[in-house]
C-alpha cells in the first residue's frame, strides 16, 4: 500500500554517522557542564542566591563583591582549594583593577580561590622590551590590587635576552611573581631560551610555555609539544608546564610523556570526554594542572573537564591545586609573597 503524503513527510529517518557523532558530542558537553555546575553550586550556593545576575556579567561588582572576591570571606581547606594556573587580563573589559575584580568575582562563584595571571590587557605575540615591561607592570598592578588571590608569571621574549633577564629579576627575584610565561615570539626548542631557563631554575620557579599542535601550520614562532619536550630534555632540572596540552591533547600528551619535568595544563579547548583520564593514565595525576584560559574561556567549561572525569578524590585534588601549590612553594615562601 502506498504511503500517504503526510506519512512520507513524517517517516522516521535513520541519522547519519556524522549526525550521531555530533549528538554524542553535544551530550558529552552538556553532561560535563551539568557536573561542573552542580559541583560549583555546592561550593557557592549562598553567593549565587545573593547576586545571581553577576554570573552573566549583567551586574557590576559592588564594594562587597570586590571585598569578598579578594578573599575576606573565603574559608576553604588549603589542601583542596582550587587554584587556576592559567588566566589573562585580556578578554575582560575595564581598567586593570576592574578586570581583576571581574575575574575574581566569576572565579569565586564557581569555587576557585586563587588565579595565576600573565600578560597584560592586550595580547602582543612579539613584544619589545618596553612592551614587556608595560605588560608585566599591568600584572603587578593586578597582584597589588588583590594580593591574597592573584599571583603572576612574568612575560618574557627570548628575542630580547637582556631585557628578559632584567624582567625576571625585577618581577620574580625582587618582586612578587611566581613563574615565567613564554608565548609565541620564538619556538621554545631554540637555544636562545637557555639563559632564561637557567635563571628560572636558579629562582626555583616553573616555566609555562604556550604549545599548540594545529591541524595546519602553527603560527610563526609558535611552539609545539614536541618543542617543549626538546627544551625539557636540555634542562632536566627545570620545571615546565606545557600549556593547553597542545590543544590536540592526544598527540600533546604523548609528546611530553617521557619528560618527567613537564606537566600539562588542560585549558583552552572544549570539555571533551577522555582528555583528563588519558592525561592521568599516561602522565600521572601529579603532572596535570587545572587552568581555564579566562577571560578567553569560561571557568566552568574548563572545570567540567575535571569534574566529569573518572578520577579519585586524591587525583582530582592534585589537579585542582595540589600540583600548582607544590610547583610554586619556593616562590610563595619568599618574604615578598608573605601576604595575609
- Tell me what portion of residues adopts beta-strand conformation: 5-15%
Enumerate the spans where pLDDT stays under 50 for 5 or more consecutive residues. Answer: 1-12, 37-67
The residue-averaged pLDDT reads 85
Helix/strand/pairing class, anyone? Answer: alpha/beta
- How far the N terminus sits from the C terminus, by CA atoms, comes to 82 Å
Oligomer type: single chain
Cα shape: globular
SSE sequence, one letter per element? HHHEHEHEEHEHEHEHEHEHH
Largest sheet: number of strands, sense, barrel closure: 6 strands, parallel
- Name the strands of the widest sheet in spatial order: 4-5-6-7-8-9
Total strands: the figure is 9
Radius of gyration, taken over Cα atoms and rounded to an integer in Å: 21 Å
Q: What is the percent of helical residues? A: 40-55%
Helices, by number, come to: 12
How would you describe what is shown here?
It is a single chain. With 340 residues, this protein is of the alpha/beta class. The chain is built from 12 helices and 9 strands. The strands form 2 sheets. A 6-stranded parallel β-sheet has the order 4-5-6-7-8-9. Strand 1 (82-87), helix 4 (96-109) and strand 2 (112-117) form a beta-alpha-beta unit. Helix 2 (17-50) crosses helix 11, helix 6 (161-173) runs parallel beside helix 7 (194-203) and helix 9 runs parallel beside helix 10 (275-283). The radius of gyration is 21 Å and the shape is globular.
Amino acid at each position: 500500500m502506498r504511503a500517504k503524503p503526510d506519512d512520507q513527510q513524517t517517516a522516521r529517518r535513520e541519522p547519519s554517522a556524522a549526525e550521531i557523532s555530533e549528538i554524542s558530542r553535544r551530550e558529552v558537553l552538556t553532561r560535563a557542564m551539568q557536573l561542573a555546575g552542580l559541583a560549583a553550586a555546592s561550593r557557592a550556593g549562598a553567593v549565587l542566591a545573593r547576586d545571581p545576575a553577576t554570573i552573566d556579567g549583567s551586574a557590576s561588582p559592588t564594594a562587597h563583591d570586590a571585598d569578598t572576591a579578594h578573599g575576606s570571606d573565603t574559608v576553604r581547606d588549603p589542601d583542596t582549594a582550587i587554584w587556576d594556573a592559567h588566566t589573562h587580563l585580556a578578554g575582560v573589559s575595564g581598567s586593570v583593577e576592574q578586570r581583576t575584580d571581574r575575574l575574581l568575582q566569576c572565579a569565586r562563584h564557581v569555587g576557585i580561590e586563587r588565579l595565576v595571571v600573565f600578560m597584560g590587557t592586550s595580547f602582543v605575540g612579539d613584544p619589545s622590551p618596553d612592551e614587556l615591561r608595560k605588560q608585566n607592570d599591568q600584572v603587578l598592578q593586578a597582584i597589588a590590587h588583590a594580593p591574597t588571590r592573584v599571583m603572576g608569571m612574568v612575560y618574557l621574549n627570548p628575542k630580547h635576552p637582556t631585557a628578559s633577564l632584567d624582567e625576571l629579576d625585577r618581577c620574580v627575584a625582587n618582586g612578587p611573581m611566581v613563574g615565567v610565561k613564554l608565548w609565541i615570539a620564538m619556538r621554545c626548542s631554540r637555544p636562545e631560551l637557555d639563559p632564561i631557563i637557567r635563571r628560572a631554575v636558579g629562582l626555583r620557579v616553573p616555566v609555562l610555555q604556550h604549545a599548540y599542535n594545529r591541524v595546519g601550520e602553527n603560527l610563526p614562532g609558535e611552539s609545539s609539544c614536541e618543542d617543549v619536550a626538546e627544551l625539557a630534555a636540555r634542562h632536566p632540572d627545570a620545571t615546565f608546564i606545557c600549556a593547553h596540552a597542545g590543544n590536540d591533547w592526544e598527540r600533546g600528551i604523548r609528546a611530553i610523556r617521557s619528560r618527567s619535568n613537564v606537566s600539562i595544563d588542560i585549558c583552552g579547548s572544549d570539555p571533551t570526554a577522555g582528555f583528563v583520564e588519558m592525561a592521568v593514565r599516561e602522565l600521572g595525576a601529579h603532572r596535570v594542572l587545572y587552568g581555564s584560559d579566562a577571560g578567553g574561556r569560561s571557568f566552568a567549561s574548563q572545570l567540567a573537564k575535571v569534574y566529569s572525569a573518572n578520577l579519585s578524590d586524591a587525583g582530582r585534588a592534585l589537579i585542582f591545586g595540589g600540583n600548582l601549590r607544590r610547583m610554586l612553594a619556593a616562590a610563595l615562601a619568599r618574604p615578598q609573597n608573605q601576604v595575609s
